[in-house]
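Project outcomes to date are best conveyed with an example. Our students and postdoctoral researchers have been running inverse folding experiments weekly, and each run begins with a structure described purely in tokens. The record below, which covers 399 residues, was selected by the lab manager from last quarter's runs and is presented without edits.
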């Protein structure tokens, strides 16, 4: 079965094609074809990168609109040096990462008009993401016709949060109108939980796990019996941990102060909290941790210390929700690559019997347990494979 995965964002889009046969492999397979399109490099241009048939192609194209660019990206599946199929009708199913499924979707679903309407309606909760996701679905309809499409939601894994964990203590009618904690990065947290159980050779349902997805966006989740019971992101992906350029949780009074004292508009506050805060806002250097580390200024050091402080205190909260801990997982750009962040985070939990093997931590581990043999809590570094997780969901639904 050939499964195409599309991860459509507002400033970039990633896609890959898997060819799967029964039985599915234990380890994530390499895709036949991988493509990426980036609209941030230059105004009016799009940077297209394709990897297939052992070749890597990079080209800058004139960008008319995102839908047309996506069609161009999909053409490289069946044309030129990156051709991996004869005709587009060889694709059996297409899976989409959809950021917001609201209260409507607790699991993946085959896309029809009702699903599309719901995704469009939920754009009021995720104005940057859901419209781009929908555009991805429509681009596939244009280029691949009636191929079955599947929506895999980033919120779905957290639909198991209890009412106590998901509501905000504001007037209850807002909860009834959908203002609640949804949580995000669900595809990654769920993948990491499954992979952790596999690597530890234990039943997922017997484990208490904390997964820390630390990329440009950051969130952690508390997972018990294979279900998410708590997570740091909430109504939007702005809540919780300090991130690359997002603030994470702040006192809502700060927003009121900015609007009252400095006459910030809604758009300005939104930009400040999403694009000018986090590592970038504090350090004044960059949202990229590597550059912040290299800067070695007073403010860059403060940014890193704040990042670690907030990560530790949120992990503490997750431990309380779980009432125990068997393993902690680090994933995504920072989680997978920064030995320093892992080490400094784990240091705070020595009292729990959590002990890092510093040699393993420094040795660029991938899908490995980096806890010392004597550690009471396991520490895993897992390369997150959201596309593979989406492909597996498609496989399950298609069969
Ligand atoms: P996204 O959330 O956009 O998917 P990634 O998961 O790729 O992002 O994470 C991107 C971040 O990972 C970068 O901004 C950078 O801060 C961090 N990162 C990547 N490699 C390293 C590294 N070797 N050391 C520290 N941080 C890294």
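After processing, the design step wrote out the following sequence:
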């Amino acid at each position: 079965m050939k499964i195409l995965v599309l991860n459509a964002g507002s400033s970039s889009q990633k896609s890959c094609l898997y060819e799967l046969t029964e039985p599915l492999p234990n380890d994530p397979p390499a895709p036949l074809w991988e493509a990426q399109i980036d609209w941030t490099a230059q105004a009016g241009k799009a940077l297209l990168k394709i990897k297939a048939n052992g070749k890597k192609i990079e080209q800058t194209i004139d960008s008319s609109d995102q839908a047309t660019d996506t069609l161009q990206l999909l053409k490289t599946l069946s044309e030129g040096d990156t051709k991996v199929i004869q005709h587009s009708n060889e694709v059996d199913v297409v899976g989409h990462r959809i950021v917001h499924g609201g209260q409507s979707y607790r699991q993946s679903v085959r896309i029809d008009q009702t699903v599309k309407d719901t995704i469009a309606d939920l754009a009021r909760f995720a104005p940057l993401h859901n419209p781009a996701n929908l555009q991805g679905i429509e681009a596939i309809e244009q280029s691949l016709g009636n191929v079955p499409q599947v929506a895999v939601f980033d919120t779905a894994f957290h639909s198991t949060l209890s009412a106590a964990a998901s509501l905000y203590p504001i007037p209850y009618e807002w909860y009834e109108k959908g203002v609640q904690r949804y949580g995000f990065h669900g595809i990654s947290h769920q993948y990491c939980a499954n992979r952790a159980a596999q690597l530890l050779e234990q039943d997922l349902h017997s484990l208490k796990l904390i997964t820390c997805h630390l990329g440009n966006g950051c969130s952690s989740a508390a997972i018990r019996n294979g279900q998410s019971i708590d997570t740091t992101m909430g109504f939007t992906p702005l809540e919780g941990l300090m991130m690359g350029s997002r603030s994470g949780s702040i006192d809502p009074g700060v927003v009121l102060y900015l609007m009252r004292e400095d006459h910030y508009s809604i758009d300005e506050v939104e930009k400040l909290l999403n694009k000018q805060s986090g590592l970038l806002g504090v350090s004044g250097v960059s949202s990229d941790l590597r550059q912040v580390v290299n800067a070695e200024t007073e403010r860059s050091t403060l940014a890193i210390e704040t990042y670690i402080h907030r990560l530790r205190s949120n992990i503490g909260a997750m431990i309380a929700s779980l009432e125990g801990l068997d393993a902690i997982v680090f994933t995504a750009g920072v989680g997978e690559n920064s030995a320093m962040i892992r080490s400094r985070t784990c240091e705070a939990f020595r009292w729990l019997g959590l002990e890092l093997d510093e040699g393993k931590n420094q040795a660029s581990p991938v899908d490995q347990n980096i806890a010392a043999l004597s550690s009471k809590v396991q520490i895993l570094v897992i390369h997150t494979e959201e596309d593979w997780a989406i492909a597996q969901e498609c496989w399950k639904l298609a069969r």
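The domain at 2-153 is CATH 3.30.420.40 (Nucleotidyltransferase; domain 5). The mean pLDDT is 95. The training component of this project remains on track.
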